[in-house]
UniProtKB/TrEMBL annotation:
Pfam family membership, one: EF-hand_5
Superkingdom of the source species: Eukaryota
InterPro entries: EF-hand-dom_pair, EF_Hand_1_Ca_BS, EF_hand_dom
Protein name per Swiss-Prot or TrEMBL: Uncharacterized protein
Gene3D superfamilies, A to Z: EF-hand
GO terms assigned for molecular function: calcium ion binding
Origin species: Owenia fusiformis
């Protein structure tokens, strides 16, 4: 189950006002990226719509298209009904992160889905993403393309001009689990942060 699937977990006993604003903005930004139809809720149809868009705009071959849909179906497991709103989404993820319950965090499976995404984006199967391959992710989520280069450079920790699977997963892990409130942390995995 991906972090997006946490809306099916027990409702948290966390007040939205008790969550650090910077972190809320990060997770709210991820929510907006997935809420493809901008109706304020996430559901199965949003996720499959993202898949359709990725496959079409990324001109993906069958193998890579199947990986996109596999990733999104894993994300959607058990989440089709009822749809999740942004506040519930943020509260559930935060509640599970602060519990520091290793078993629960393991269930969130923060990395399996993004490992699949990496493989889907890696068009030449060389285990690295080029900037052009990475931009397919930004385009598919409808993110502001002006910032793709900045995020790519942030992920490219060894400065070799490409992003390895490990660098990609580390960036995703940091984005979701780092509760640091430093506004200068430029990890913008899902683009520029929204205001809440």
């Amino acid at each position: 189950m991906d972090f997006l699937a946490v809306w099916t977990l027990e409702p948290p006993k966390v007040k939205i006002d008790d969550i650090p604003n910077f972190w809320k903005r990060k997770i709210g930004t991820a929510f907006r990226a997935y809420d493809r139809n901008n109706d304020g809720t996430l559901c199965y149809e949003d996720l499959m719509g993202i898949g359709d868009y990725f496959v079409k705009t990324g001109k993906m071959n069958r193998k890579h298209a199947d990986l996109v849909y596999t990733s999104l179906k894993k994300t959607a497991e058990g989440t089709a009904d009822p749809p999740c709103d942004m506040v519930t989404f943020i509260r559930n993820i935060y509640a599970n992160l602060i519990k520091k319950d290793k078993e629960q965090i393991a269930k969130l499976n923060l990395f399996e889905v993004w490992n699949i995404w990496f493989s889907a984006l890696d068009a030449d199967d060389d285990n690295y993403l080029t900037l052009d391959e990475y931009k397919i992710l930004w385009d598919g989520f409808g993110l502001d393309p002006r910032f793709a280069d900045i995020q790519f450079s942030w992920m490219d920790t060894d400065g070799d001009g490409k992003v390895s699977r490990e660098e990609f997963q580390d960036a995703y892990r940091d984005y979701v689990t780092n509760l640091d409130t430093d506004e200068n942390n430029i990890n913008r995995f899902f683009g520029p942060l929204i205001e809440l």
